[in-house]
Task: inverse folding
């Protein structure tokens, strides 16, 4: 489905040596060093020799953040503080530049795209891409959220969108989401894929009460039990428990990895999509950088399952790709030190360890 090449690990030692020989103690730049290594390794894959890698100066080109929006039938189960109509209202807010993600993208230099993956009210704003898979998913605790055919179409839409972004010269993409009820779907995917109790996966989302959390736990338990026969296949698991936007984010992650792009993963919902993506093709994990640890209860356990060390921990729980957007200066700083910082030999400084 997606032909994703594993990263050439022979280049990793060249990159690590270059980092280690900068004028600093070993490891003194902490996670920025690992970030620089990952970014450079991804962006150097088209080179044909270790010497070329040593001379390579990686840069982030035309970083693009795509917000996928979708409505969830499970919202009817009383698992959110807001009605499903808010999803479409927020798409309009994105289109008119008034949301947090618009502010951060303008400030930091992201190109922002908005995708209607399937919402109750179809959007006709010129800046919103129509990739609708329906109006709303079915409730996950009573039936399949969507059909396998809808998931397949979602992957096709996502691949087309990522290809178009790549053709603008972009080499770094991030994905955000909007969808009332989508933390419940993400928690169900986490519980199913990691074989964890629902109570360890469900959190307060955008700020529900303890009573609503209890309801969410019950809904997730019902959903996982209902779909046991589908849980050995990640595509069927996604169809059973996911959402229109989660399906397209999963497809977009896989498509971007296939194209050798850097994929910046946002919070809980996007990490759930990343988890599904790694179950479809394990090599997709090589291309991911995790932006932040959100305030959603299950996110840290999900990050651990993905062997991910996020760059930020700001107690965010907004979604929209906000954490991914805020990580861009750190990515740029990682490459700035890698490209511009002198080596001990260049600076005539005695090497320290």
Result:
């Amino acid at each position: 489905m997606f032909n994703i090449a594993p990263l050439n690990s022979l280049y990793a030692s060249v990159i690590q040596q270059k980092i280690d020989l900068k004028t600093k103690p070993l490891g003194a730049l902490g996670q920025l060093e690992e970030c620089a290594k990952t970014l450079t390794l991804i962006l150097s894959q088209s080179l044909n020799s270790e010497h070329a890698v040593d001379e390579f100066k990686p840069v982030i080109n035309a970083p693009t953040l795509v917000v996928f929006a979708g409505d969830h039938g499970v919202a009817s189960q009383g698992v959110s503080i807001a009605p499903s109509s808010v999803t479409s209202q927020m798409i309009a807010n994105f289109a008119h530049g008034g949301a947090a993600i618009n502010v951060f993208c303008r400030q930091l230099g992201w190109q922002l795209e908005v995708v209607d993956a399937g919402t109750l009210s179809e959007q006709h704003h010129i800046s919103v891409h129509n990739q609708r898979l329906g109006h709303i998913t079915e409730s996950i605790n009573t039936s399949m959220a969507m059909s396998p055919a809808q998931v397949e179409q979602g992957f096709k839409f996502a691949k087309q969108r990522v290809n178009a972004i790549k053709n603008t010269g972009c080499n770094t993409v991030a994905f955000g989401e909007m969808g009332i009820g989508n933390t419940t779907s993400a928690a169900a995917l986490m519980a199913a894929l990691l074989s964890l109790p629902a109570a360890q996966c469900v959190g307060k989302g955008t700020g529900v009460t303890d009573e609503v959390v209890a309801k969410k736990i019950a809904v997730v338990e019902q959903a996982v039990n209902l779909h046991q026969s589908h849980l050995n296949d990640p595509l069927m698991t996604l169809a059973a428990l996911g959402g229109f936007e989660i399906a397209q984010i999963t497809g977009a992650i896989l498509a971007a990895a296939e194209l050798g792009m850097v994929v910046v993963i946002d919070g809980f919902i996007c990490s759930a999509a990343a988890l599904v993506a790694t179950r479809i093709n394990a090599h997709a994990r090589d291309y991911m950088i995790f932006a932040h640890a959100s305030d959603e209860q299950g996110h840290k356990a999900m990050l651990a399952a993905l062997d991910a060390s996020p760059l930020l921990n700001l107690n965010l729980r907004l979604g929209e790709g906000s954490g991914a957007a805020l990580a861009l200066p750190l990515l740029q700083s990682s490459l700035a030190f890698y490209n511009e910082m002198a080596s001990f030999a260049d600076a005539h400084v005695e090497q320290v360890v």
